[in-house]
Known about the structure:
The chain is an alpha/beta fold.
Amino acid sequence: MKIYISVDMEGISGLVDQTHVDSRMHNYERGRRIMTDEANAVITAAFEAGCTDILVNDSHSQMNNLMIELLHPDTSLITGGAKPFSMVQGLDESFSGAFFIGYHARASKKGVLSHSMTFGVRNMYINDMAVGEMGFNALVAGFYGVPVLMVSGDDQAAIEANELIPEVKTAIVKEAITRSVAKSLTPKKAADLLARQTLSALSNRSIVKPLIPPENPILRIEFANYGQAEWACTMPGTILEPDSTTVRFDAEDILEAYRAMIVMTELAMKTTFC
């Protein structure tokens, strides 16, 4: 059995603010070690359950956070930034299932460090479906016929996962109090929970269905301000909707929509506020 694991950082136990997830800040090294330990809890349990091939994709910020020297030695790791498919780089139809570890709620929703790709995004839609990173990544997995078997993060990420993917298993490692405050399990307790839920998710895999994306999807991104929308709309094929900060792109398939989203959000980050 071949398993794909995408590991973000904001949904890891004990990590609640910028100091834990920004490589320039004082708590970051602690954060990346806990992130690596949580990934290992899932990886080890999956191998013990009979998985034979596990690919891990570092999916936070510059995407070079996981400490490869501490990962399970039989794991393959995709690390480094500027990936064509970002958080789902390397995912294809050869996988039996996907795990989203350390995930968070989408922008404009309650949840620890909630956002969607960048802090300039207010909402993202595929047709009429509101999505964040979790939803968009699940749609890409669904394009390949791969079900998302488990999502870990805070309680708000779990709510989002259950709304998107019937029968998905969740591992709630912390409960959001505010966007930067949580009641968290200790890393050891979180690792134990992740291991148990990994085994449960793998035994449950036959009843979890892939999240199938629409054909010719319409991507719409609502930005926080007009300057960000203007920058995003410099990408060919986009339309800035009148009297709004929403940019539209009509895609051939979800893969094109995903790459368009990456380009649009990166362009929007060029906006300055002075």
